[in-house]
From TrEMBL, chains A, B:
Protein name, per record: DSD1 family PLP-dependent enzyme
Family membership noted in the UniProt record: Belongs to the DSD1 family.
Keywords annotated in UniProt: Lyase
Species for this entry: Noviherbaspirillum album
Alphabetical list of InterPro entries matching this protein: Ala_racemase_N, D-amino_acid_metab_enzyme, D-ser_dehydrat-like_dom, D-ser_dehydrat-like_sf, PLP-binding_barrel
Length: 378, 378
């Protein structure tokens, strides 16, 4: 019965020094390659984090929901790319943001949605600044850069009331590889095909000033960003075990962890039960198909040092089951991790784990801490 | 471009009539078998839902976090079982709840934790009402009903300051089966072994008034609850696809769904892209290992009627990929589900999906709706 720390558990901890290094690394890298950098704030949904990204040189933000746009606009951030194709039932809220002075950019990937946007102005008579989403790796949304429909959408936007701001893409398939060669190949494909889409639109006589690309793995792997005006990335701010497996960070770069306390044991099975279950870690099992499966997370001592050989093997809502990675029951588990022991668990996916918490607690090298609120919902 | 509904998406919808039927079914069943019923509120974390469970006859509530205890106690519910073994860093908050008048019951499953609790009173001199968690199916926490340690813990609690309130168990392995015979067998094992633990404690001379058992599948399958004083269950209030696969509800009994809007297509792949990704559905893939895998959810029209043959096959943070269950690309997907179409997605796991939302929207047969807040965090 040791370590009766007053730290409430489970808690989402941010190691501020690691986060700062991650922010500086990305910002420096993109600055060297030329484009502007527009962080995706869906990872943190936290003003204090985003302020640090902007202070490091980021220009504008990327959001995944209009709630993110509303909250960050209310905090004074007015250059916002809403990087999910606009649904008809969100157009009024988008218009309202624009009318209140937000430089909001919306995204479409179909003639139907382009028609919806180009046929109208906002209540105050402003136009929708619009990007066309391009599919550069087949993993999700977007239209093919070589397609006729790309030019059709360009024509609808250019011929209507909307402002065609450019093209954007997200090479999400970069999460599925784990060698530098493969990452560089996807990064180059992302760049090349998005630039191709812009050039086809320009060739057809449409303005297409912006070429916006990005994902954390491709942003950190691209050798050239020629023709690209803007890069987006989100999870790099914290990193996580999926990114470690992809190969773009080390396990010691991961700035987000979940503090937890040992509450029981099953010695015959070699289990320590902790108070971080899937409600704390999220149900994300992103490392399951990767080269190293961390279960629900990697185990560290409360100072953040990795404890090799153990993982959060399983999880119920408020119970995590900590066990040996090799599946052999550590029958002295209660001696290794007595009840009350506090630990940190590194998450598979920082975007999913952070979302389980109403706030982050920061941990600094000088021992100081702070509580930073985050929001969720739509 | 049809169905420009004003319903914001994604939203967590509660079909109130279905929820009422689920509440009544469980309450009636347990009343017939004899014990009291103490619903687990970790599923909804919503006062309006819990008030309906209590109005139907439930006696007290079960919680998975002290935040749930605090919030429901603040709303006037004072009989609360905190069904996760108490961590040392939570003892002060538990004591504070007791001192403020909450009839809080805490749980231990080790001599170490029993010693911690039995050695102290609350600041106002009250004792900790304590249950011993018993492991009746090997799936997680608890001590074996046949073990010497059970009596040791009984002795520590009876010999110290704490009040031994009884024994409790949760047969979580009932989620892993899907026949009535197997469910009845696990239910009987849960009952028999928890009663055995109580009888061994009583035989050793310790008071053990309560025998508390339960999970949704066993509560709905048990043929006898002899010796049991109290049953607990949570997910039955909404049900979900995992419970449908287990066999304790029909798909039409599921009261929770996520409203979503179609935002794009990849016709060659037969994909409709919707605005409910894993941030809305959660990352829970509970049906993955069951007899029918629903991906990230089953697809219904906006009135709640199941659309056979389609599922939410994949999910990114704010993008869901809706596709045919049989894997054959429906190339007319944009005609079947035009942009703007609103749908409901039934979740794998209601506890996980609900937790992604700050509020529920209720849908009633008479067309009326309401917004019910829910909370998250610790």
């Amino acid at each position: 019965m040791t370590n009766h720390s007053a730290l409430p558990t489970p808690s989402a901890l941010i190691d501020e020094k690691k986060m700062s290094c991650n922010i500086d690394r990305m910002q420096r890298r993109i600055a060297e390659l030329g484009p502007r950098f527009r962080p995706h704030v869906k990872t943190s949904k936290c003003l204090e984090v985003v302020q640090r990204q902007l202070a490091a040189g980021a220009q504008g933000i990327t959001v995944s929901t209009l709630k993110e746009a509303e909250n960050f606009f209310a905090a004074g951030i007015d250059d916002i790319l809403y990087a999910v194709c606009l649904a008809p039932n969100k157009i009024e809220q988008a218009a309202s943001l624009i009318d209140r002075g937000c430089r909001l950019t919306v995204v479409v990937d179909s003639a139907a949605a382009a028609g919806m946007i180009s046929a109208r102005k906002t209540p105050l008579g402003k136009t929708f600044r619009t990007m066309i989403e391009v599919d550069t790796d087949g993993h999700r949304s977007g239209i093919r850069p070589q397609s006729e429909e790309l030019l059709e959408i360009g024509k609808i936007l250019a011929g209507g009331i909307a402002e065609l701001a450019g093209v954007m893409t997200h090479a999400g398939s970069s999460y599925d590889v784990d060698t530098l060669e493969a990452l560089q190949e996807i990064a180059e494909q992302e760049r090349r095909l998005c630039v191709l889409a812009a050039e086809r639109l320009r060739g057809a006589g449409y303005d297409c000033p912006e070429v916006s690309i990005g994902s954390t793995p491709t942003a950190l792997s691209a050798r050239s960003l020629e023709g690209v005006t803007e890069v987006r990335a989100g999870v790099y701010v914290f990193f996580d075990l999926v990114m470690k497996n992809v190969g773009v960070c080390g396990i010691d770069d991961i700035a987000l962890s979940v503090a937890t306390t040992v509450i029981g044991h099953q010695p015959e099975k070699g289990w320590a039960i902790v108070d971080a279950g899937w409600m704390a870690m999220s149900r994300d099992r992103g490392t399951q198909k990767q080269k190293k499966d961390y279960g629900y997370g990697a185990v560290c001592d409360i100072s953040g040092a990795v404890i090799p050989g153990f993982m959060l093997a399983s999880a119920n809502q408020e119970h995590g089951i900590l066990a040996a990675e090799n599946g052999i029951a550590a029958q002295d588990i209660a001696r290794i991790f007595p009840i009350g022991t506090q630990l940190r668990i590194l998450p598979n996916h920082a975007c999913a784990t952070g979302a389980q918490f109403p706030e982050y607690r920061t941990i600094n090298n000088d021992g100081s801490t702070a509580v930073w609120e985050r929001f969720h919902g739509w």
